[in-house]
Amino acid sequence: MNLFRSEEHIGRWLGGREPGATIPVGKLSELSHAWWDDRLSPGWRPHTRDGNQAILDRLGLTADFWRLPDP
Amino acid sequence: MNENDLALRNLTYARFVELGRAPTVAEIAAVAGRGRAEILAGWERLHAEHALVLDSATGDIRMANPFSGVPTAYRVQAAGRWWYANCAWDAFGICAALHSDGRIETTCPDCGEGLPVAVAGQRPDDESLLFHCLVPAARWWDDIAFT
After folding, report:
1. Is B64 helix (H, G, I), strand (E, B) or coil?
2. What percent of chain B has pLDDT over 70?
3. What is the pLDDT of residue B83?
4. What b-and-e string marks burial along B129-138, b requiring 16 or more CB atoms within 10 Å of the CB?
5. Of the candidates B71, B88, B67, B89, which has an alpha carbon nearest to the alpha carbon of residue B79?
6. What digits encode the pLDDT tens for the residues A12-51?
7. pLDDT given for residue A69 in this prediction
8. Is the ipTM of this complex over 0.90?
9. How many cross-chain Cβ pairs, A to B, lie less than 8 Å apart?
10. What is the pLDDT of residues B2-30, one digit of tens each?
């Protein structure tokens, strides 16, 4: 899970490997804040699989690549 | 996750933030008033539930996501300290968890160019950068250190 300057850099880094998924860094920041915001809350409870999937779905990350495993 | 393990998890995270690094078994045992074996057994249950990640060789905390217990290519300045994140996702996650603006320092894995990012109001100052996730979500926990 890395940051890159451009698609060209990602392609070179992959070196023939199957690409994963690429999103703009602004979308990543939205995702991270939704995912980790409660991590230090005294009332923290483990996220459910469906709760995490809902975060991905809400940000439009709905391709099979972003489907979390069933519990 | 039972209430005892939840309390241990919250204590471990709280000490991580207080210390600015991963706490040791001995440090958590001392503050919790419990034995080291009991703490380690609790951490192992939390590891199994993906609530933290232990180093398989030492039993030390490798990840208390989004924080890393070991140096990485993702350094984050937030809430008055420098932290290590496990990856780009977690680098923004440290700002999120601390409810803080911040500064991320890393390098492009392809060319080695520095990629500093300031985070203010939950937004990066350089929107041109891209995030690449190599492993599909269904397999993230197959090898979380690689992911």
Report:
1. strand
2. 100
3. 98
4. bbbbbbbbbe
5. B67
6. 999 999 999 999 999 999 999 999 999 999 989 999 999 9
7. 92
8. yes
9. 164
10. 999 999 999 999 999 999 999 999 999 99
Tokens 């939704």, residue? A34
Tell me the CA end-to-end span of chain B in Å, nearest whole number: 24
CA-CA distance, A16 to A18, in Å (whole number)?
A: 7
- A23 CB-near residues (< 8 Å, 6+ apart): A31, A61, B130, B131, B133
Q: Is A59 on the interface with B (CB under 8 A)?
A: no
Task: Look at residues B102, B103, B94 and name the one whose alpha carbon lies nearest to residue B16.
Answer: B94
- What pLDDT sits at residue B1? 85
**3 state SS of B139:** helix
| B141: DSSP letter | G
Query: Chain A partners of B119 at a C-beta cutoff of 8 Å?
Result: 29
Residues of A in contact with B94 (CB under 8 A): 36
A51: number of Cβ within 10 Å: 10
Give the amino acid at B84: Y
- C-alpha to C-alpha distances, A62 to A28, A59, B137, nearest whole angstrom: 14, 8, 11
Sites in chain B below the pLDDT cut of 50: none
For every residue of A2-60, DSSP letters joined together read EEES-HHHHHHHHTTSPP-EEEEHHHHHHHHHHHHTTTT-TT--PPPHHHHHHHHHHTT
